[in-house]
Amino acid sequence: MERWSGVLRVPVHPTSRTFHRVGASLCISPETKTLCVPVANAIFFCGDRVDGTGNPVIERLSNLQKLSEIVVSKFGSLINAWVIEASVFNGPFAVYKDFILSLNQYGEPRPYDPMGFPASTSTVSLLSNCLEEAKKIILGTQVDSKSGCTSTGSFSRPKTFILGFSKGGTVLNQIVTELGFSDIGSNVNSPDVGSENIYIVPKTKEDLLNSISDIHYVDVGLNTAGAYLTNHDVFERISKRLMQGAPQLRFILHGTPRQWSDKRRDWIRNEKDKMLHLLESEVPKSLGKIKVFSRYYFADMPPSMQMHFEIIESLDTRLTRPLGTEVAAACDPSTVGSGRWSLLCETSLTLCPPL
Length: 355
Prior knowledge:
By secondary structure, the protein is α/β, with parallel strands linked by helices. It has 9 helices and 12 strands.
C-alpha cells in the first residue's frame, strides 16, 4: 500500500470564513493511484500553539505532516491519519469554535452540551471536505467519495480512533458527550454486503459515532476545569448504549508529569482520577464492553514542555492491541498508596509499588 501525505487548508462548512489546517496521510492504491478504504481513520486533535521556544523537538512535533506520519507509525500502514488544528487562535490559544459551541475567548469550555451534536457533525463535514481536496490534488479532478479499492480486500466499514492532545482533549470530551446521547441506529451491527456501502470517511454523525472504537486522551490539560470529562450521566448512557448493541469502546488515558503532577493545576489530576473511577464503575455494567487503560510516561523526569510533546512520539498504542499483548506500566503517582491500578488492561494488572 502506498500513501499520499500533505497539509490541507479547508473549511468545516462551505460558508465558513475560517479554515482548518489538517495534516493528512492517506492510503492509495499502487496500481490505480486512487484513495483506498482504510482499516480505520485516526483523527488527532491538536492543542495550543507553542511558538518561539527554539526547541527542535517541540518544533518537529508541532508540524502537522510529521504528526500524521507519527500517527500512521502508531496504528499501522492500513489507516488514514487526520491531524486537525483549530481554525481560530487567540494568540497561542486554540479555539475549537466549530466543535464546541460554548467556549471562552481562550478556547476553554463551559459545560459540555450534546445539543446539536456540533463536534461529530463538524468532524464529518471537515473530513469530507478534506477528502475532496485531497482527491483534487491526487487526481486533478473531483470524484465520488466512495473508494475504488479496499485496503484489506474485504468490505468492512473503517473504525475510528480519536486522539486529543493537550487542549485537543476538549473536542474528545464533546464527542464522548454526544456519543452518550446518540442513538445506536439500525445499521450499527448490520453486515456490510458490498463496496457500495463502504466509504473512506464517515458520511453522517451517526456513522462516525458508531465507528469509534478507541479514544485516546494524550496529556490533556487546561488552565481551568474541563480537561477530562467527569459527567457520570454521560458514562452511564454510554454503558447502556453498549448493552443495546453498540460495539466495544476503549478509553486510553496517557499522561506525563507536565500535566498529572502539576501542583499549580491539581484539578487536572483530580479530574483524571474521577474520570477513571467513573469509567471503571461502568465496566461491569457494560459486561466488559468498556475497556479502560491508563499510562504514565517519563515518570522519573521533572515536568517540562518538551516531554509534553514527546509523549506523542512515545505513545504506546499496544494498549489497544488484542488479548495477549504484554504491556509494561509506568507508575502514576496519584495511585501510589491508594491500592488502585495504574494500568487497566484485559490481560494483566500491574500494581505500582510505593515510591
